[in-house]
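The instructor's notes for this session suggest beginning with a concrete chain rather than abstract definitions. Hand out the sequence below and ask the class to guess, before any prediction is shown, which regions might be ordered.
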Amino acid sequence: MTIEDKAAAPSDAGAGLARIALSAARMLLGVVLIGLVLLNVVNAVGRAVGTVVIGVDEVLVFGMIWMVMIGMMLVTADRSHIALEILTARVGARARCILSIVTHIVMVGACGYAAVQSFAFIQRVTATGQTSMALGMPMLIPHSALLVGFGGTAIIAAMIVVSDFRSLPQRDGRA
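After discussion, reveal the predicted structure:
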């Protein structure tokens, strides 16, 4: 094993761990989605036969909010957000990298701001003891999804910015 191989091993291990975590998160989201669909079917059948299952609608809404926020982090980590490729398809690798850096810096700012505002809102909701109408669930739980999603996305976008900055000289042909 060369010195370069030894130096690359920790980052390879980190990348492998990240891939495993992303795969596990995708699997978890799939299972949660199937569970929510089944819960929705149970709710629909219950209504058809005249039985109302209290709180199902709340669980469905709160579950979807959590799924969207976790999904946002996964999409960011995959760099697969919806993008207009009209510009990136017409520029070289270095310019694409710079555009990625700018895009992700904007994401860090926007998502970081949203996370700070979400945290402030969670503090107010928790201080007042607000609960959901049907289940009496503390509203801290569904509102925390926004903090986790925006905060996690800001962190992931910041990591992408650092990664792109590190790869920028290599894309220019310089060491």
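Then share the key points. The chain has a mean pLDDT of 88. Residues 10 and 16 are 10 Å apart (CA to CA).
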